[in-house]
Amino acid sequence: MDTLTGCQVLKKDGKLKNAEDILNPKITTVIYLFTAGHVTGRDIVLKTLKKVYHESKRRGGSWEVFFVSSDKSEEAFKAEFFSDKHGNWYALPYNDPRCEELRYKYNISSLPNVVVVRTDGEVVTLNGREDLESIGINVIVTWG
């Protein structure tokens, strides 16, 4: 995951971690969650992704989620990420240049959006939001 190389990411407990430490050999799939607190329609995506993430971890899952914020301020970012709507996943820090790089790389033009990629760079889906809305928790099979 060359985009995350050298990146520090934020955990829900407020601590920074090296992305390389998180993306150990056990993790085979990365889910990028592109959204912001002011975006309408994000709640159902967050609710479903949170269930999927929890179930994946319960099964010893090989996935990790990274929140890529489009919030307009650091305060809005913190209010969004540290809310109970988000799962116990990671976030790229507010205003990290990789956020813009990822939006460009995956052609993100609307929010919320979910992109699923393998750690070897293979794209599983650029339409993760639609998958979450249409098949729900069964994305565990579809994305697996």
Automatic annotation (TrEMBL):
Domain Thioredoxin-like fold residues, every copy: 29-123
Domain of life: Eukaryota
A Pfam family per the record: Thioredoxin_8
GO biological process: photoreceptor cell maintenance; sensory perception
Family annotation (Gene3D superfamilies): Glutaredoxin (3.40.30.10)
InterPro entries: RdCVF2, Thioredoxin-like_fold, Thioredoxin-like_sf
Name the record gives this protein: Thioredoxin-like fold domain-containing protein
